[in-house]
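Lab manual, section 2.4: Encoding a predicted structure.

Procedure: take the sequence of the chain (475 residues), apply the prediction step described in section 2.3, and record the output as structure tokens. A sample record is shown.
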Amino acid sequence: MVTFEEPSLPTLLTLISLIYALQVARGVAQRLVGAGLLGEIAVGIIYGPVANILQEEFEVTILALGYIGLVLIVFEGGLDIDLDLFLPTLPLASLSAFTGVLLPLAFTFALFASPSFNLPPLQAFSAGAALASTSLGTTFYVLRAQAGTTDLAATRISAVLVSAALIDDIIALVLLSVLTSLGAGAVTNLGWTIGRPIVASLALAIGGPAVAFLVARPLFRKFAERRVIKFGSNAALLVGIAVLSAFLAIAAYAGTTMLLGAYIAGVFLFALPSPGSDLNFKHVYTETVGPLQTYIFSPFFFCSIGFTIPFLSLWTGRIIWRGVVYALLMTLGKVLVGLCVVVADSFSPSPTPPSSLIAPEGTSASPTTAAEKPSFASSHSNLSSASSLKRVHLPTLDVLPPAAFLGLALVARGEIGVLVLQVARNSPGDLLGEEAYLVALWAVALCTIVGPIAFSALVRRYGEGIVNGRWGVQR
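Recorded output:
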């Protein structure tokens, strides 16, 4: 049993300085490089492995609170879902996610088998599984961080990005399950080990929204909505916490990632209120949980990533050059995902009008006689058929910013990459040696730093063009 004792002055001052340093570092990093999360990660590195300022029990507590921040980041993404964008972009998102997993794995096997690295295939699989992931929390964070200048969250390419990042994390969970079984030597039931998270994820992703829209929504609107509105924001907050907790439990016990459960919980709440209702779960979240998320939970999450990086062990020449080379390949593996957008754009409806509406060279574009002048109805019909005509055409330069948007936003690995690496490193089956572990950590760290910086620079330069383009906001 814990007894109440007054904390020591050094303990209080350390925690106060940590909370304040996180706010300052986020503001400075956001102003300098457009990625405030890097400042929070840097503070975590300083207070953790570099200076060992925090006691281990404090780091464990901050890591748990930070994971609440990660859950809330993903949960908020579900609250903001736009089904008119999400469903049509799901096939492209699936293709992008599988491309973003297979390329890093292929590059890792090729690099680790080269004479310069010469590392075993099992270690290549472990490192590749970590670098095949995407930091879902970072993806939502960088999208929200740019919301003040452009309406990126409402674009087609953002819907593709969010879905692809979710699928990436599900695949990473499958690979993590495989690694856990390999490390424990439990390969007798490998089929179910691989299949369980896939089946659980599909069941949750399909069943959760189906129950929300077909069952929960009519029941909630008939029996509960007016009562929740009557009792105000506290009642709405209770409903939100209950739904979130339920989906976290379902995801955990089913064998899939709790982050998928958090996202589906947000979608579930999005579906409940009636059109034009005074009940708005996103508004309640922003007013009640938002300040805590902004100043405590979210900073603690990115700070906890810094705790897990063995910073001082990374600085040897052999580890550095290998880590940098590996990071470059892993960055390329995600950036190339943007080619999926280029290919999809090539099969999209061509904006070129039909030849019957284009005046031949050297002739007037306007008819000169009433007999030659086409009616408005026939012209409108021709234009409609032209807009609906689908054929393969060469991509234009306009598709490059959305393609880069998708590729760069997937570069950051963050928490998922570190988790997979540490599971592989600490497993009894020697899945990841010390050198491969440190090289992969270099790649995770560099990708998590470079990705948000490059993404922010792209948004500042091409954000308005993306929003107003073919992959932008659909009006």
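Check your result against the sample. The two ends are 60 Å apart (CA to CA).
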